[in-house]
Amino acid sequence: MWELVRANQRRAATLVVVMAALLFMVGYALGEALAPGAGLGGLFVAFVVWVVLTLVSYFQGDSIFLALSGARRIEKKDNPQLYNVVEEMTIAAGLARIPDIYVMDDAAPNAFATGRDPQHAAVAVTAGLLETLNRDELQGVIAHELGHVKNRDVLYMMMVGIMMGAIVLLADVGARVFFYGGGRRRTSTRSEGQGQLVIVLVALVLMILAPILAQLIYLALSRRREYLADASSALFTRYPEGLASALEKISHSTATLASATRATAPMYIVNPLGATARGLADLTSTHPPISERVRILRSMGGGAAFRNYEQAFRTVTGRSGGVIPPSALLGGEHAPATEPAAPDTSGRLERVRQTTDMLWRLNQYVFVACPCGTRLKVPPAYLGRDIACPHCGSVHRIQPSAA
Amino acid sequence: MIVGLVFLVLIVVVIFWVMGMYNGLVGSRNEVKNSWSQIEVQLKRRHDLIPNLVETVKGYMGHERGTLEAVTKARQQAVEVTGSVEERAKVENALSQTLRSLFAVAEAYPDLKANQNFLALQEELTSTENKIGFARQYYNDAVLRLNNRIQMFPSSIIAGMFNFQLETFFQVEAPEDRQVPQVKF
């Protein structure tokens, strides 16, 4: 398992370096385009941008991301089952600390993990996910998220994503300068000759190609990491069917996550941008098609180890190159999977009730059990006041935190 | 001169190689120790939860005195046992058995199943069972990694020199014991 983490980190570090190089090149080209000979100045600007972005994403990335998604931190008492599932998977993954748990008040079933390293990790799930999935399925999804944490995906995804944004932005600025400011500059530089023209041409090509290249690198990286996290989920739970059936249920949902944007989409377990975006399985997708992920998980042939996933991946996709670094396959952990249980159909109503109750409580509502059998949900404004039960008329004094 | 230099480089390489192997072995051994302590935390938690459960259930399940006593007795044995991994695994597995039959019997008591306290305890104990299972899974993987290193060439040489010991797996009970017991009414 540690071999996987190490191989993963090496690969991700290489990509971060490539992205940084691309960013510096764009900076240089931008400088040259603005004024001949100012390439070094452009390089310097790109470097400053890179340093600032890296520092911000390292120290603040997770809190920015959680704030953007509108997620709220919960404690064990708010949802004991969710907390227990996360704790179980923390143990299975061998992580030292239980991640912070956040809930998003959104009907679309989805989840993400964040935090630069396992010490600062957090997982967030939507209310829709808690309502849709049974315990085994929830476990599969949480294991997938902790797979991201264990494989150190989050930090690199964040850094590469932010650098991609910077490259796109700089190239965009450069292109504008080029086309709108080009006329004036050309007259002033005519005497400088051929060499200058070549540099300007190279800069132009670079500014067109760099954003495309950056996005392709980013997408390839993020899709590979989804497969890896799926493989980790199967290994942690020893029950690939849990995640498979969770993914299936999630893909049947038509709700769109309100707080997700194109920039934050790659962080989620499935693409949150609606069913149309999810159906596309091309180069521009941040996630592998769900149907393929489900088929791989169901073709693991009774095993839950990495090599079973690797084998299933090759059979299903027909590709010879796998997703798991060869060094991680050497250990040969013997991991038989648990047999799929009978499909669980009960409990959906109960789950919906519990999840809505939790959200009410997070909003400081107070629950009062009336002797007539009615349960009153009282807004926080009524604290300390008397209210009458609408059914039987008996009067209750509203006390804080009377569950 | 050249020969001496080559010899020196060779010695340095060997020393670094031995150091790497040794550190790898120590790392694996610490992982085993660490994951074992994780199991113990969860076993302890289960021991602490059971008296609460028995107290809650008592009022509802007057007729099932035998089942309750079996749980209490199995817990007592599990708390008192001190010994090898195998012995502990045996008594803890027995405790899991009695708990499973208790929850199976509880299915027949609708009043009990409506009790919030019981439901909370059931979730806690089920989850603790899962945690023990996952901690055992991680422990066994760690033991496998350590034992592989100790027995496989070339790290076996270093393991022999520094006297690394093979560790014992925390065995799951035999497959036929894992079945939920059939309860007849």
Features of the shown structure:
heterodimer; A: 403 residues; alpha+beta; 4-stranded mixed beta sheet; two-stranded antiparallel ribbon; 15 helices; globular; B: 185 residues; mainly alpha; de novo design (two linked rop proteins)
Question: What does this 3D model show about the protein?
Answer:
The complex is a heterodimer of chains A (403) and B (185). With 403 residues, chain A is of the alpha+beta class. Chain A has 2 domains: 362 residues, no CATH class; 40 residues, no CATH class. Chain A has 15 helices and 8 strands. Chain A has a 4-stranded mixed β-sheet, sandwiched between helices. A two-stranded antiparallel sheet of chain A has the order 5-6. A two-stranded antiparallel ribbon of chain A has the order 7-8. In chain A, a hairpin with a 7-residue loop joins strand 3 and strand 4. In chain A, helix 6 packs across helix 10. The longest helix of chain A has 44 residues. By secondary structure, chain B is mainly α. Chain B has a single domain, classed as de novo design (two linked rop proteins) (Up-down Bundle). Chain B contains 7 helices and no strands. In chain B, helix 1 packs antiparallel against helix 2 and helix 1 runs antiparallel to helix 5. The longest helix of chain B has 57 residues. Chain B is rod-shaped. About 4% of the residues of chain B have low confidence. The chains are: A alpha+beta (403), B mainly alpha (185). At the A-B interface, helix 4 of A face helix 1 and helix 5 of B.
